[in-house]
Amino acid sequence: MWTRTARTLGLTLLVGCAIGIIACGGSPSSPSPTTTAVAGTPITPIEVPVNQSPATPTTPAPTVPSGTWVNVVGDTGWCGAPAMPLLSRLLAALGGEIFLAGDLAYPSGTLAEFQRCFEPDFGRFRARFWASPGNHDYVTAGADGYFTYFADRAGPARRGYHAVRSSSWQVLMLNSQVPIGRNSPQFEWTRAELVANPTRCTMAVMHYPIDSSGPNGPNPQLRDIWELMVTQGVDVVVSGHDHMYERHAPQDASGRSDPARGIRLFIAGTGGAPLYNRARTAANSEVLLSNHGLLRLKLEPALYEWEFQDVTGAVLDRGLNVCH
Q1: pLDDT, tens only, 178-236
Q2: Which of 16, 153, 159, 174 could be a cystine partner for 206, CB 3.0 to 4.6 Å?
């Protein structure tokens, strides 16, 4: 973990370079070089270019509360997985809200599987978690087991998409298992939600990733919703589905690198299901790790930090970026 002094210095340097980019050299829109990592091997701290230079203040910036650490993980609820009690212990020690990125009870998402395979390790965190469904949750007709188990933590009316405010951030919990393309009810809801509740920083959680270096990417059916989120300034999307951790550089809906307006994708399907290895190399992939663990995000008023921690609490990837 970073020391408080090192973290404060890092944030000061980052924001200082964003404001005085000419003096610091380089461009805030220049993409960072791709970083490769060997599965299971910690990598050195990463410096990531900011997305956008904030306007130079004319008065001293007000003091704002520090951000809030949250946790995101998917592809858990695998009965007997040795990683699950370790993740439960880690979550208890870390604190913070928990955003679940689908496939939460294997193999069929029945209520009995939720009670047998998810509840023993994660049920005690009910007051902290919010859920988004995955394809295994929908093996049971209408995802009945999922919606019965999570109830209000899965959003209203069993539609599987809803919004949460976390710290100063708007968080959209989306449902990649039902129509999500242009003119669908979910697409129109997402548009209305983003227009009606503008925030400096926005995140979305959904099970399917738009791209992946694992066996289950890309997913071009998500292009419309990704384009909408780019247009509305969404900063981060976290997905599951592929059982690995992967960090992507900010990208547009066509998969092109876009440091200025693109959305950064994380895949965190690392909650206990058997792990995957690389099947291909996605265009904007920066780091891929085949480890069980969870993604930690610190949601600051104008930026975010990330850490991927394995089940022992070791930090295998970290960085920060300024919101759009």
Answers
A1: 999 999 999 999 999 999 999 999 999 999 999 999 999 999 999 999 999 999 999 99
A2: 174
How far is 174 from 162, CA to CA, in rounded Å?
A: 7
The dihedral through the CA atoms of 154, 156, 161, 162 has a sign that is negative
State the fold for domain 38-49+66-322. Purple Acid Phosphatase; chain A, domain 2 (3.60.21)
**What count of residues does the chain have?**
324
**H-run or E-run covering 229:** helix 223-231
Whole-prediction pTM:
0.81
How big, in percent rounded to 5, are the helix, strand and coil portions of the chain?
A: 30, 20, 50
Q: Which two tokens stand for residue 28?
A: 């805030």
User: Three-state SS for 101?
Assistant: strand
Parallel, antiparallel, or unpaired for β 236-239 and 293-299?
A: unpaired
Q: Cα(17)–Cα(40) distance, rounded to whole angstroms?
A: 32
Element (H, E) at 322: strand 315-322
